[in-house]
Design brief:
It is a single chain. Helices cover about 70% and strands about 0% of the residues.
C-alpha cells in the first residue's frame, strides 16, 4: 500500500465532491419523471403552506401555474 499526503483543504474538497456525487447518483436512480401522487391543487397548496418555507407571492405564482397546467385540469 502506498501512502499519499495531501493538504487538509484538498481532502475536504474531495470528500465534499464525493458526497455530492453520491447524492446525485441516488436521485438519478429514482424515477424523477414519475407523475405527482395527487392532482388536487388544494391538497398540494395546503401541504406547501403548512411547511411555512415559501412566501405568499411564490405560492400564488405556483397556484397560477397549476391552474394553467393541462396535467391538473384533467
Amino acid at each position: 500500500m502506498v501512502t499519499v499526503t495531501i493538504p487538509k483543504k484538498e481532502y475536504e474538497e474531495l470528500v465534499d465532491k464525493r458526497l455530492r456525487y453520491d447524492y446525485l447518483r441516488q436521485l438519478m436512480e429514482q424515477n424523477i419523471f414519475a407523475a405527482p401522487p395527487t392532482k388536487n391543487i388544494k391538497e398540494i397548496m395546503f401541504s406547501l403552506e403548512a411547511t411555512k418555507k415559501y412566501n405568499k407571492k411564490f405560492l400564488a405564482s405556483l397556484k397560477r401555474g397549476f391552474k394553467r397546467s393541462s396535467y391538473f385540469r384533467t
